[in-house]
Design goal:
single chain; alpha/beta; Methyltransferase, Cobalt-precorrin-4 Transmethylase, Domain 2; six-stranded mixed β-sheet
């Protein structure tokens, strides 16, 4: 009699924006039982140390857009499929939430094409973590009733008409992965006469011990930030709700310029790297 090998399972899970205690209980349970964990760059070292079984193989598949070294999405897909077909429980652990500005669609399509069982476990996305740790409600009565999650990395993907609409909306605007283009974002919004009471919050390394929040009027940006150089990850919040930071901030800014998440350029021999010691 020929036995059919058992196919494993893939868990697509969010690790939260930095603070390891923002990991969900469900994600933690799967990590404790995983055979293989494919981990992003923006995942706390404490999660790797404290929540993953010592028997699990941890494979670093980090990405850092426009910064050179990154693990190709094709490689990540192949690692998921290869290990699942060996009957292993694979956790694909992403920073933040799995469905906000991630490549989950590519991964889901690969899993379905190979008839591999999977689950999706949400995580605390960066916008919610950063806003909470900065004391900025993203919607608040009298300030904003809606919020938009955006990213801006190419000048030709947003029309001038849409910039005009963004400048005039009452929604809170949250920009992911846009710190390198922030000068252009500010220029576009001010060119379309965004109201002066809509403030800008720049939140570096949110929810970590190195969190730093800067709040200013958009029209003062060039004067206050002459050479934009922010530590990744950085999240941008724009809107009237930003004015609430001063009254409700509960976490002091860090004076440190250390990296909570090691940059890709400082991690040797990726593509991908197997972690044997995370202590």
């Amino acid at each position: 009699m020929t036995l059919t090998p058992k196919t494993g399972k893939v868990i697509l899970a969010g690790a939260g924006p930095g603070d390891p205690e923002l990991l969900t209980m469900k994600a933690a349970r799967f990590l404790q039982n995983a055979d293989v964990v494919l981990v992003d760059r923006l995942v706390s070292k404490e999660i790797l140390t404290n929540y993953i079984s010592p028997k699990a193989e941890i494979i670093y598949v980090g990405k850092q857009c426009r910064r050179g070294v990154s693990t190709p999405q094709k490689t990540i897909n192949e690692l998921m499929i290869e290990n699942a077909l060996l009957g292993k429980l694979v956790v694909r652990l992403k920073g933040g939430d799995v469905s906000i500005f991630s490549n989950i669609l590519d991964e889901l399509e690969s899993l379905v094409a190979n008839n591999i069982e999977y689950e999706i476990i949400p995580g605390v996305t960066a916008a919610l973590g950063a806003a909470a740790f900065a004391g900025i409600p993203l919607t608040a009565r009298g300030y904003a009733t809606s919020v938009r999650f955006l990213t801006y990395y190419k000048s030709d993907v947003v029309t001038d008409e849409y910039w005009k609409e963004l400048a005039n909306t009452e929604d809170t605007l949250v920009f992911y992965m846009s710190s390198e283009t922030l000068s252009n974002v500010v220029e576009k919004l001010t060119a379309h006469h965004i109201h002066e009471d809509k403030l800008l919050a720049i939140i570096e390394q949110a929810t970590t011990p190195f969190q730093n929040v800067q709040v200013m009027n958009l029209y003062d940006f060039k004067r206050k930030i002459s050479t934009p150089n922010f530590i990744s990850p950085t999240l941008i919040i724009i809107g009237r709700v930003v004015s609430l930071h001063e009254n409700f901030k509960w976490l002091a800014n860090s004076s440190s310029k250390e990296f909570y998440f090691k940059p890709m350029s400082l991690i040797p021999n990726l593509q991908p790297e197997k972690i044997t010691n995370v202590s």
